């Protein structure tokens, strides 16, 4: 008989007790999750994560002492490698759109609405715990809008490794930047989903990126995709799998 997988270890960081308690109760109701600690401030979240090494952190944005964006940045910076450390799932509401770009740049793996259903919460935690990113098309559109209004001087230096991408990898990156999931990319390119997963993995390795969320940002920051233009169509139809 095989040993069941260990539960996903979760830390919940939110300055509202009701929110912390509510999410904790939901997650603890499922056998594949265990809430190991909670935190009421960003600074406390950083300390707690150093002590208990969770798999996933549900991170509020607006918290005292240190906001969720800075806490996310410190958690990612403290990880020994790009793939190590907890995955951060930012808890947000639609009125926090101005924080989307900053949180993703800080290393968040996705966003979750506070009004989320229980099943959506479970799915989201599982997705980021598995090393994937939760970046829905709606969030991608807001990310594009934020990036489009940024002064050029505020954008970061080019991502190393872009020149090493093959034509097909560049094509996959462009589709990922549109917010397409792996199955959707596979359908668009008429290839298998496993092939797409392989391409995405190679892209992340070559660009030294944490997950597909960071790949989306890299695509925009390096001019592969230009908000408001037809740049997304460039590069399609080139190369082979």
Question: In order across it, which strands form the biggest sheet?
Answer: 2-1-3-4-5
Number of helices: 10
Mean pLDDT, all residues = 81
Distance between the termini: 39 Å
- Provide the low-confidence segments as ranges: 229-241
The Rg value, from CA coordinates, equals 18 Å
What does the largest sheet look like? 5 strands, parallel
DSSP strand (E) fraction? 5-15%
Please trace the helix and strand order, writing H or E for each element. Answer: EHEHEHEHEHHHHHH
Structural class: alpha/beta
Q: What does the oligomeric state look like here?
A: single chain
Structure notes:
- The protein is of the alpha/beta class and 241 residues long.
- 45% of the residues lie in helices and 12% in strands.
- It contains ten helices and five strands; from the N terminus they run E-H-E-H-E-H-E-H-E-H-H-H-H-H-H.
- The protein has helices spanning 17-28, 42-52, 68-78, 100-106, 118-129, 137-148, 167-177, 182-189, 193-207, 212-221; strands spanning 8-13, 33-39, 56-60, 87-92, 110-113.
- Strands 2-1-3-4-5 form a five-stranded parallel beta sheet, sandwiched between helices.
- The longest helix is centred in the last third of the chain and has 15 residues, at 193-207.
- The model is unreliable at 229-241 (pLDDT under 50).
